[in-house]
Amino acid sequence: MDEITLSLNLADTESAEEPKERIIDRELIIIGGGPAGLTAAIYGGRAQLKPLVLLGQAFGGQAATSNEMENYPGFADGINGMALAESIAKQAIKFGAELVYEVVTEIDETVYPYIVRTYGATYRTKAIILCTGAAPRKLGVPGESQFIGRGVSFCATCDGYFYRDRPIVVVGGGDSAIDEGLYLTRFASKVTVVHRRDTLRANALLQQRAFANPKMEFVWDSEVEEVLGDDTVTGIRVRNNKTDETQVIPADGIFVYIGFRPNVALIDGKLELTPDGYILTDKRQRTTLPGIYAAGDVQDPNFRQTVIAAGTGAAAAMEAERFIAEQQYQAEEKAAQAATTQNTVSPEHLQ
Ligand code: NAP
Questions:
Q1: Residue 259: CB within 6 Å of ligand 1?
Q2: If you placed Cys at 181, which of 170, 202, 278, 351 could pair as Cys (CB 3.0 to 4.6 Å)?
Q3: Is residue 297 annotated as part of the catalytic site, yes or no?
Q4: For residues 95 and 13, which has the higher predicted lDDT (pLDDT)?
Q5: Is the CB of 329 within 6 Å of ligand 1?
Q6: Which pTM does this prediction carry?
Q7: Residue 131 falls in the annotated catalytic set
Q8: Closest by alpha carbon to 41, among 57, 69, 22, 60?
Q9: 159 catalytic, yes or no?
Q10: Where are the alpha helices (DSSP H) in 185-238?
Q11: Which residues are within 8 A (CB) of 234 and not within 5 positions of it... i.e. 6 or more apart?
């Protein structure tokens, strides 16, 4: 897909009735404070748009939970995810971006300029960049929700340290499961990877490292049936999907890495999504509404890489800048035409 047809007639909505609440005007609003949003803020700031970044409750996005990133360009010795996010934020602030911890409750796309509401304020903006990221998928088995924070985790960097010399289970067979599983071997006495097939999806290098690590074990063709525990997790029950046999794997921690779900609740029904639920964008980060862009994991089912999130954030901000300039140009043209019409002497005036 190269281009998306812009479906909103801006001229029709410009005359829409003004909402009554106090409204703060901003040229560009960026929703989300991960690498995509923060990079968009650098580019928006350098374009003199004074972007407002609505961070939500947390700063840095998923990247900030990564203990060490080895593949972000420019950091040959790796960099801590939070340190990287802070550095990008500093750069954005230097160029005039404003970062606030506000949670967006609503985007009103039926008027233009668009309205963005948070718990504390109402903003009117010419362009929006959605960088709301993705959240970990859950297994949906008994015990999983009950033991979140008491043995079930979705973040090895956040919780791995609590499992020093204790057995851990990682569920999943993709890059995340194996990457985070390897990280967990630093702390755990043993990391058992439970995967529903007999081959991993993770890339070859990760597989090589995992198979060579004496602390890693694999339970193949197995699906989790239940997370077991009393006050805290004691293990999981899995069923082999070839033999139908069940077994209990004792573990103090269960780390679930079975993919991610894009955070699209804010725009549900307002923008077109891909069949797997991500925001549909074209190669220029445009969504199906003019002036609304998406960047990072919320529109990327394939890569989930910080460098790609940052790149799409930059592209979205460059597009937003062009769009805002075009709106400005059209408004000035309209004003000039109106002034010419007013000053023109009509034949009736001469009689
Ligand atoms: P992913 O590649 O979609 O892998 C998800 C894994 O979970 C798959 O092995 C899948 O099994 C399994 N799974 C899905 N639903 C399940 C269920 N209900 N029960 C049990 N298992 C289930 O997700 P990801 O590992 O989070 O990676 C997402 C993207 O980020 C990928 O593009 C990846 O390359 C990238 N990433 C890269 C790195 C890195 O390069 N270091 C690190 C993290 C993420 P099947 O294999 O049977 O489908």
A1: yes
A2: 170
A3: no
A4: 95
A5: no
A6: 0.81
A7: no
A8: 60
A9: yes
A10: 204-212
A11: 151, 228, 250, 251, 252
